[in-house]
Amino acid sequence: xxxxxxxxxxxxxxxxxxxxxxxxxxxxxxxxxxxxxxxxxxxxxxxxxxxxxxxxxxxxxxxxxxxxxxxxxxxxxxxxxxxxxxxxxxxxxxxxxxxxxxxxxxxxxxxxxxxxxxxxxxxxxxxxxxxxxxxxxxxxxxxxxxxxxxxxxxxxxxxxxxxxxxxxxxxxxxxxxxxxxxxxxxx
Length: 187
Fold this sequence. Notes:
Elements: H1 2-28, H2 33-58, H3 71-83, H4 87-109, H5 115-141, H6 149-183
Helix pairs in contact: 1-2, 1-3, 1-4, 1-6, 2-5, 3-4, 4-5, 4-6
């Protein structure tokens, strides 16, 4: 269970990262449909935090209540930079952060898990796909689709960000698994 608890805590941190980034994005937008949609998506992440925390406890672990270090801070910085611009800039930053969440959630949903765990991870991955698709469609309507200069730049940043965050977070997950094994007395 140490590996499973570490995996669940890694996903929990991903959602903690997202809640912070969503909060920045929401605060940067005026009242309206985009802001309301992001608020609903943040509620999805808050639900993920609750469900994943319960699964961690159910498997004998302690839920991590912090974002990833240092990638969580980087995700907040990306969103804060986006907040300096208009709707399009906020959504470009949002899509960059959401890309890593979507891809990571998708990978974890494709792994074998106990039935209750699999259902939670699969639902979270479906939510991430929905969030990412909405951001891509919104950017397309705002003239920042994948074939535009801003869309191409966003895709490049998303790819680098995703690979870097995945690598750093993988090391953190292995450390969490080792700590969990030690906590359980398994060395």
